Amino acid sequence: MILILLGPPGSGKGTQAKRLVKQRGFTHLSTGDMLREAVKNETELGLKVKSIMDTGELVADDLIIGLITEKMQEVGGAAFMLDGFPRNLTQAEKLDEIFVAENLSVDRVIFLNVAEEELVKRLSGRFYCPKCNAGYNYPAHLPKVDGVCDTDGEKILRRPDDEEDVVRNRLKVYHRLTSPLENYYREKGLLAEISAGEHPDRVTESIMKVITATW
Ligand code: ADP
């Protein structure tokens, strides 16, 4: 099964993806995570994309398409979900081409819909553990000890692109370039719209219902 997680920054794609990995054994392919890893390791790709990521703009299509194609090949025949890709119409059309060539198809596009003011609130309170990647949120999901990860005691950090002005730009970029994909997949009959402003457990339940109905 192949799923696409679609939704604005802060809509919970990463949080829900982690749960789907645990509960359903999906492989999670997150372009954002891949790029952050490349930046952290200062690879050639990382050095190319860092400055653009820090502004909240999109990285060049050819870089992203190369990266995701390689990762999809590594997955082989296993069920996987795409998070952060495709992010504009060019990428969506390219994905269609790749899938036609590989005889694959998207089963469902899960669209996590959240009101704008809730997104800003979530992103400005968001922290993560650099060691185990666990997510925290002030004040919705606090660590047991302020400022450190529950699992390994590591100091939790903010993503550089979660600073307020960058958050605003990421939302603009979403509206301008990514939100047209909502209609693109709706017209193909693939879009499942989930009301994702609720508690993460409720959102997981809604996604599970869609998966069960599709599979
Ligand atoms: P968000 O929380 O905004 O959904 P991600 O973690 O998915 O963020 O991505 C972080 C940044 O990585 C984006 O702002 C963008 O610069 C870059 N990026 C991720 N995926 C893509 C993509 N498919 N195309 C272009 N740039 C991307």
How much is the radius of gyration in Å? Answer: 17 Å
Q: Largest beta sheet, briefly?
A: 5 strands, parallel
- Poorly predicted regions are none
- Number of structural domains: 1
Note the total helix count: 9
Helices and strands, in order, run as EHEHHHEHEHEEHHEH
Shape: globular
Task: Kindly report how far apart the N and C termini lie.
Answer: 8 Å
Secondary structure: elements and pairs:
Layout lengths: L1 E5 L6 H12 L2 E4 H10 L3 H12 L5 H15 L4 E4 L5 H14 L5 E6 L2 H9 L1 E3 L6 E3 L26 H15 L1 H8 L3 E5 L4 H15 L1
Parallel strand pairs: 1-3, 1-4, 2-3, 4-7
Antiparallel strand pairs: 5-6
The chain binds adenosine-5'-diphosphate.
Question: Main traits of this protein?
Answer:
five-stranded parallel sheet, binds adenosine-5'-diphosphate, globular, single chain, Rossmann fold, two-stranded antiparallel ribbon, 215 residues, alpha/beta
